Amino acid sequence: MFAGLQGWHIVIIVVLALLLFGAPKLPGLARSLGQSMRIFKSEVRQMKDDDPKDPKDPDSTDEPVEGKVVDPDHRGPKL
To answer: What pTM value is reported for the model?
Structure first.
């Protein structure tokens, strides 16, 4: 996707960022982006560490769940 990106392209992107956001705001934007990435990584790591097979939870078994197919035309006795 970025195979044709050369050095002068990056210079143009940096100059445009400076013009759009201003030099004083760029460090704050980079800091907030880094903090957001750290939070995202920690949440992903926490999700991976959570053990889905809690022995107290009856729904966390590896056994298949049986079900039956119900005919939509036959809904049971009318009341």
So the answer is: 0.42
